[in-house]
Amino acid sequence: MASLDRRVRRAAATAMALAFGTTLTLTGTATAGTGTARTDIAPADTAGAGAPTGSHVTQVPLAQGLYQSAYSERNDVLWATASVGQPPAPVTASRLLRIDPDTLEVDAAYTPPTNGTVEAVYGIDVDDEHNTVWVTNTRTNSVSVYSQRTGRHLVTRPDVNHSREVVVDEKRDVVWASAFGDGALVAFDSRTLREIRRVTVEGSGPTGLAVNERTGAVYAADFTNNRIIEVGPGSGAPRLIPTGEGPLSITLSTDGRTAYTADQASGTLSVVGLHKGAVARSVATGEGAKSVTVDPCTGRVLVANRLAGSLSVVDPRAGTVVESVTTGAYPNHVRMTDDSTAYVVDKSGSGPSGEDGLTRIRFGPQGSHRHDTAATRPAC
After folding, report:
1. pTM of the predicted model, to two decimals?
2. CA distance 288 to 248
C-alpha cells in the first residue's frame, strides 16, 4: 500500500504540473488555420488495421499554453483556454480563445482580469442556455464566467481550492466545479452565478467531471483514490465507485448507465457499470491516458493519450481499440461534437513560434468528403 501511495503522489504531482505551460504566443487572430500552418492528413494515414475508413485529420498550431476546449452549438464556436507559467513561477500570460471550428482560425482572444495575479484560465465548459463560458482559474483557486457574445468577464467566484474542471447542467441551471485541493465538488446557479452547494469528500482529489442531465447526478474522477465520486441531486452522502489507476478524466455513455475514465497511471480506459458500481472491463489505450469523451453518434469512446501522442477510439462493448489517430505531441484534452468531430488540444510546442496545436478529426466514411462549413456538416 505504501508503494501505491507513493505512485499516486508522484502521479498527482505530474498531473498538477501538466496543467501549466511556458510561454503564450498566438499565431494571429485571423491566420491560425491558414497557409503553411495548416496540415491536412489523408484518411489512410490515420486509421489502424481493421479501423473504420474515412477519418480526416487537420492540424494547426494555435497558441502556447493550451489546456482545454469546449464547443458551443448555439454559436458554432470552439472555445479554448491557454495559460502560461509553471509553478512556482507566476503566470506570464493567459487568454480565452474564440476559434472558428471550420477554418480553425482564432477569431478573438480575451485577456482574463488581473488583481495582483492573473486569473489564468484552465478548465472550460459552455452554457448555451445563458450564452456564457465557465472556466476554472486553477492558480487563483476560483472559477470565472465570461459572455459568449462579447467575451466580457462577468464574475469571479473564489474559494474553489485548486479548481480544475467545470461542467454545465443546462437542464437544471447548475454548474459544477472540482476543487482538487479541498476534495470538494462545488455547484453554482448558472442564472445568478452564485454558489449553491458544496460536497466535500475528505482525502479525495477530484479532477474530471461529468453530469447526467437526465438525473442531475454529477460524477467526478477521484485521482487520489482510484475511484469515482457520485453525487445525486438530493442525496446526502456521496457514493464511491472503484475505477482504474490514476483516473484524470470521466465521461458518461449516452444513456447514462456507464461511466468511462481515462486512467493516467495505467494508460487505460475503465468501463464502469454504474448500476453494479464495478469495473466491467479495462482497455489499454496508451501511455498517459489523460482525457476521455464519447461520440454521441456511435457510442464509441475517445481517449487522448498524453505520453503516447495519440487518440484511441474504443468500442466499449467489445473492449477493443478500433482506431488510433496520431495527434500533436502531448495531447491534453479531447472534446467531441454531435456530428462526430473531435477537437484535441496538445502541448507539443511544435508550431513555428513554439505554439501548441489543435487537431480536428472528422470520423466516419464521409469524413474526408465533408465541407468546411457548419451548414453542411451532417448530424447523426
Report:
1. 0.87
2. 10
